[in-house]
Amino acid sequence: MRVFVTGASGFVGSAIVKELLQAGHQVLGMVRTDSAAEELIKAGAEVHRGNLDDLESIKKGAAQCDAVIHTAFNHDFTRYKANCENDRLVILALGEVLAGSGHPLVITSAMGLLNYGRLVTENDTPVGSDVMPRAASEEAANAVAGQGVNTYIVRLPLTVHDKDDHGFIPIVIGIAKEKGESVYIGEGHNRWPAVHRLDAAVLYRLIVEKQPGQKVYHAVAEEGIPFRQIAMAIGQGVHLPTVSKDGEDAGAHFGWFKHFATIDCPTSSEQSRKSLGWEPKHPGLFDDLIPGVYF
Question: Residue range 5-12: average pLDDT?
Fold first, then answer.
């Protein structure tokens, strides 16, 4: 199978590229820079130059392949809503190419959308994008599915961990270093699900290979890790005290990240595991935090 992967040089996308190649598939990877193109060629994939603003280029890449895995997303939180709406446009453009072909389109969403304070499953749905902008991706996926596209949604947890992570855990570490202490909010009982990126990559591969009837998947290895435990591990890793803060004090510590530091979305992946025969086998989050992929 020839698979078009957007975000092929990204933290998750690069792992998916390697997983697909190791399984004997061909990969056409979309990248923006010369250095990313060189890494893709070294890995054994083909290069498609493009970016998220160039919808025609994205459509051309998709038209050349038997499946599409869309992982690219602009994580500049200063223009978060605009980036979410841009992802909607990308998914709709991919849908134009794939409608009626039977070729699978796998898009990427975020578990943080299901901040319900209880165990959530693949059957749960997020609130609308008018409330939570990131829901635009799932709305677009559902729209193109209604147009005859063989669409799948993969929800990634709040922490997809491994060496070279530049997501939420490094942000929390950076804030701790800047403020001189590692912080959790209140009792710190809110829970973050987690997965190793190599396990997540296997899930994406299994979807395009098996193309099952289930359409929503949770790439979750650990259902919910209390944020207090994460803060304590970070405090130990950077040799700083770990403390609880509330209200304005918590806001002063975390700034724009406070919302994410309070998310409570323990997540089941039972349906995903049964549907695909997917079993995570790589280290858990604390195996990476202690003794220290991150430190």
Answer: 96
Instruction: Report the alpha-carbon distance of residue 29 to residue 196 in Å, rounded.
Output: 21
d(CA 255, CA 55): 34
Overall domain count for the chain: 1
Residue 218 lies in a domain: yes
Residue 283 included in any domain: no
The DSSP annotation for 158-218 comes to: SEEESTT--SHHHHHHHHHHHHTSEEEETT---EEEEEEHHHHHHHHHHHHHH--S--EEE
Between CA 198 and CA 212 the distance in angstroms is: 21
For residue 292, is pLDDT > 80? Answer: no
* Residue 122 resides in a domain: yes
Q: Domain of residue 145: give its range.
A: 2-161+194-222
pLDDT band at residue 245 under the 50/70/90 scheme: very high
∠ CA(272), CA(18), CA(53), 5° rounding?
85
Contact assessment for residue 295 and residue 238, using Cβ atoms and an 8 Å cutoff? yes
Q: Please give the model's pTM, rounded to 2 decimal places.
A: 0.96
Q: Which residues in the chain belong to E strands, given as ranges?
A: 2-6, 26-31, 46-49, 67-70, 104-110, 150-156, 159-161, 182-185, 191-196, 216-218, 222-226, 242-245
* Residue 75: pLDDT band with limits 50, 70, 90: confident
Q: Where are the beta strands (DSSP E) in 35-138?
A: 46-49, 67-70, 104-110
CATH number at residue 16: 3.40.50.720
199 occurs within a structural domain = yes
Phi/psi class of residue 247: alpha, beta or left (left: φ > 0; alpha: ψ in -120 to 50)?
A: left
- The candidate with the shortest Cα–Cα distance to 171, out of 179, 219, 115, is 179
Beta-carbon contacts of residue 176 (< 8 Å; ≥ 6 apart)? 182, 183, 231, 234, 235, 238, 240
